[in-house]
């Protein structure tokens, strides 16, 4: 297919041009769009004809393709390489343990730190070292939409900044704690890369030891969050909203933790993604009264 290379941000403006072949779809790879060219017009590259990809679902994190579940076959990997031209293909088997360290197998290329763009923010991470949860994309954007500028927020399990960065970018003052030094290194890099150093105070260590004062919002993005609730509650005031992530319904644990305090609360539950057969990753939004 004869194409012209156009920067992705100029694609929308380019599609109305006379030289664009309206019967073929542009192909976007990273920041470059390959726009099909009509006969008789100049092209600056030739790429194989694109057919719709009907292979196994995968996610792109930076230039790396990631698959979960069953180990992919050689044919499945080859189809992804031909279609998306990733620098690396990884199979992530599990993300277990307190620090959420992935167990990864490299199936193509070499694992390396990537630069991933999401909702206007830049994330640096190495997918074989730290977790990247594609299914939480909407939840991350949601957190950026609901914070109020200037509010004081604790992100108790900050990881590489999936919630910290959108909230800080929306104007919140975020106190981010992360126990895994590797994730913490990426968190610091990502705060700098997005020029959010003035809004984020990041600490490497156990959140239970580093929370200070009171917060208007507390994000608990870890499936063991219910056991950390007494710590969160001791840094809350009436009006504080706690976003507690859980696998399955954790409302009983929430009410039990609240019984030891003077708070009453409203609890709203939102689904984030399917976690297994009949099991959902949910967020309980707990507003203290
Ligand atoms: C599931 S990840 C969440 C990352 C991010 N919030 C998200 O949803 O994508 C949980 C993170 O909490 C960190 N963590 C676990 N226990 C912790 C603790 N006691 N204090 C601070 N961070 C902790 C882990 O290292 C991991 O990076």
From TrEMBL:
Any Pfam family: TRM5-TYW2_MTfase
Record's keyword terms, sorted: Methyltransferase, S-adenosyl-L-methionine, Transferase, tRNA processing
Gene3D superfamilies: Vaccinia Virus protein VP39
Source species of the chain: Methanofollis fontis
UniProt cross-references to PROSITE patterns, sorted A to Z: SAM_MT_TRM5_TYW2 (PS51684)
Stretches assigned to the SAM-dependent methyltransferase TRM5/TYW2-type domain: 58-289
GO molecular function, one term: tRNA methyltransferase activity
UniProt record, GO biological process: tRNA methylation; wybutosine biosynthetic process
CC terms in the record's Gene Ontology section: cytoplasm
Coiled coil: none
UniProt protein name: SAM-dependent methyltransferase
